[in-house]
Specification:
Order of helices and strands: EHHEHHEHHEE
Structural class: alpha/beta
Oligomer: single chain
CATH superfamily: 5'-nuclease
Distance between the termini: 19 Å
Shape: globular
Largest sheet: 5 strands, parallel
Strand order of the largest sheet: 3-2-1-4-5
Radius of gyration: 15 Å
Amino acid sequence: MAASAILVDSSFYIGALRRGIDPLVALASEALSRDVAICPVIRCEVGRGIKLAKVRARFKAFWDVMVNVPTDNRLWDEAEQTLWDLDRKGIILPLTDVVIACCARRIDAVVLTYDHHFDKIPGIRTIAGLER
């Protein structure tokens, strides 16, 4: 059985870069055995923080060949409902994390993240690192 796809959260990229690790090298290796995905929210969160245009262009080229999860009206409706449901339970989460979670649900992916907000969203599976 093939491994589940992974949706790579911003916290993975940011954490790797802060530790001096190239996240694209790790993800390229991971892509040999499973689909590696991204969504527009993650692209914006990470891309805005990349200081050098050359580095940003490298990331953009990598992201362009990953599985890109579209954010259409159905996904935004799901995010709104999820936020509403969680708020009623007293669980207040950032909009961006819930949209990312809905993207993961859309492709039945596990979220590669260091952010514990995802643990509070029903139906979301997470991993905190890559096996290597």
